[in-house]
Structures are given as C-alpha cells and as structure tokens.
Amino acid sequence: MADRRRTGNEPDPPKRAGMTAGKRTPGQPGEPGTDLSAVREQIDGIDREIQALIAERALWAHQVGKAKGKLAAAVDYYRPEREAQVLRRVVDRNDGPLSDEVLVRLFREIMSACLAQQEPLKVGYLGPEGTFSQQAVHKHFGHSARGLPLASVEEVFDEVASGTADFGVVPVENSGQGTIQSTLDLFLTSPLKICGEVELRVHQYLLSRTGRIDDVERVYSHGLSLAQCKSWLRQHLPLAEKQAVASNADAARRARNADDAAAIAGENAAHVYGLKVVAGPIEDRDDNTTRFLVIGRASFPPSGHDRTSLMVFIRDQPGALYKILEPLARRDISMNRIESRPAHGALWQYAFFIDVAGHVDESPLKDALDEIDEFAGDVRVLGSYPVAVP
C-alpha cells in the first residue's frame, strides 16, 4: 500500500478497474451455466478490491488528521455532522440488496476504525457491560471506540464534564414509557451539550441460569424494562417477585448466582454473563424503541438535517408559553417534543424542554430564537445535532 501514500495535494485517486464497469449481475447459483468455482473467484476478487479501498480510505483519513495539525486528543478529530452526511449519502445510494440498516452499520464501523488511527474515542455509558446503553454506543460510535461503563447516568455526565470521557451516551425517552425524567433533570445544572442522538430498537429477553421458566421466583431488571414487559410478566410470571435494579446488566449479574432468579435484559447480556434465554422477545410493544442522547463538551456545525434541544425558563405571566411557541409556529418550525420540569432553586417555577427541527446557527430557527430571547426568562440551547440516521 506504500505506493498509495500522498501528500494530500493531489487530485482524487482514480477509481479501481472493476469498480467502474457497473454492477456485476451474476446468475443464481444452481442455474444452468453457473460455475460455482467461477462465482467464488469473482467474490474473492471483489473482496480484494474492498480491502484495498478500505486501506486507501484509512490512509486518506490519516491525511485529514495530519492536515488538522497536532491536536490534543481524539475528540478533536471527531465531527458528528460529517459522519451524518456520509451515512445519509450511503442511504441515498443504496439500491439493495442489503438494507439501509446493514450498510449504515458497515460504514459506521469503517469510519470508527479510521478515526481510531489517531486515538480511540472514550465514551461513557450506563454499565456494566451488556446494557442497552452499550449497544447504543456501538451503534453510534462503532466498536473501535473505547466504552467506559459507569455506575449511573449522573456519573456519565460527571466523567464527560471532567474530560475523563470524550462523550457520553444517556437514555432520554422510550416509545412506550415516555421521557426519562432523571436524565432531563441533569441538564438543569450541567454545562454539557447534546451532540447527537441514537434510536435503538429494544428487544427484551427473560434470562436465567437454568433456562426453565418453572424455576423462576424472582425477576431482576431496570425499572423501565420491567414496565416495558408488564403485560408479559402478568401473564407468564404473575407470582414472581419483580425487583428493579440499577441496570439490565446488573440484573443479569444477579440472576447468574441463583437457579430461582431471572433477569430481563438484552440477548447480548446472556452471552456476557453466561445465562440461557428462557423466552423472548417479551416486550409488550412491537415498536419498543429507546432514544439516547450523545453528550459532549462542544457544539458542532450544521449537518443539513438537524434537531435542536432547548431549555426555556419562562417568566410567570399570562400567555408566556404562547409567546415562546408562536415564533416557532409562524416560521413553520416543527416542534418534536415539549416537557416541563420543576426548576431548581425556585418554588413552583418550571423549565420547559423543547425539541425543534433545525440548527441554531441557521435560519429560520436562529431568527425565532432571537425573538424568543426578548421575553423569555432564560433560553439555553442544549445542543444542535444531526437527526438519527435510520
């Protein structure tokens, strides 16, 4: 690969022979005239081309790092808006047969490995190993990032704020159970910014040491997961004790110590903690999805398809909330979510958490916020970040 090294000033490299001739359209194996050895030879050739192109991409990614000069850490090289743009183009180009989800995952891992050439990103999440938060880290940052399992969501905020972690991934809402209020409350006093979002399809499994449902007398899980499986538990384990713990992985660790205990967790937790799948998926809703936020210490430029999270403290006066929302509606700015939480330090005063479409640095949202700022008690932009790529 040494002959592919460049200074960074040359024009784009030419496309490989074989990659410019259009899509190959092989016949189906087993059809008349299909030679299996010839098909395998074609696949081997394509594999060589793919590997060569990935290596060349890694070299160009390294040139990007050199062009930026000597920076302090891996976090200085990471650009979520750029990654979102790359992944959207992957989806736009996809004509099958692989799904958008599969291709996005493949390209995410390639970008993750290329970035890790400088230094792996350190990403805090609610641990221990085997939680859905860890899955969200892998989905957003790829497996080349270094995950830091932490004991609580509050600790994730603290480790990112101190610089021990470059970013953190925290759950904020579930499609069936709604907003996770404890996460929102941390933004009331935290200086951190929201840098991204992850939507994770959540499948819950009943796991135990024996693998027999008749043995189960206690079920451990995070409170949110117990709520997501409430109907299933009522039908299949009505007499079993349900005990909420700090995380699903903590539940799995407890369940591995007794034959009469079980955990509700992701299937990955069964592999991590040596448990058997008793039943699953057991979530009550087919569309069970949890939204996670990526938190960091800096804001990033627009990606072209962004969302902005606001925290607004409103003066106590008639029509105050209307005056906040009207400038958004007048400019046809879509509002995705609004929540109110008690403001710290002021009795019966509330902060409104609002998610809207757009980036704070671009009109029409920029113009609307300038107008809102004139009569709101306080407006904090928690972050403008790329909308989760499907």
Beta fraction: 15-25%
Overall geometry: globular
Radius of gyration: 24 Å
CATH topology of the domain at 2-10 and 33-115: Chorismate Mutase Domain, subunit A
Distance between the termini: 34 Å
Average pLDDT for all residues? 88
- The name of the CATH superfamily of the domain at 2-10 and 33-115 reads Chorismate mutase
Helix segment tally: 12
Verbal overview:
One of its GO terms (biological process) is L-phenylalanine biosynthetic process. Its EC number is 4.2.1.51, 5.4.99.5. Pathway: Metabolic intermediate biosynthesis; prephenate biosynthesis; prephenate from chorismate: step 1/1; Amino-acid biosynthesis; L-phenylalanine biosynthesis; phenylpyruvate from prephenate: step 1/1. It catalyses: prephenate + H(+) = 3-phenylpyruvate + CO2 + H2O; chorismate = prephenate. This is Bifunctional chorismate mutase/prephenate dehydratase. By secondary structure, the protein is α/β, with parallel strands linked by helices. Among the domains are: 92 residues, Chorismate Mutase Domain, subunit A (Up-down Bundle), CATH 1.20.59; 75 residues, D-Maltodextrin-Binding Protein, domain 2 (3-Layer(aba) Sandwich); 90 residues, Alpha-Beta Plaits (2-Layer Sandwich), CATH 3.30.70.260. The protein has 12 helices and 15 strands. The strands form 3 sheets. Strands 1, 2, 3, 4, 5 and 11 form a 6-stranded mixed beta sheet that branches. Strands 8-7-9-6-10 form a 5-stranded mixed beta sheet.
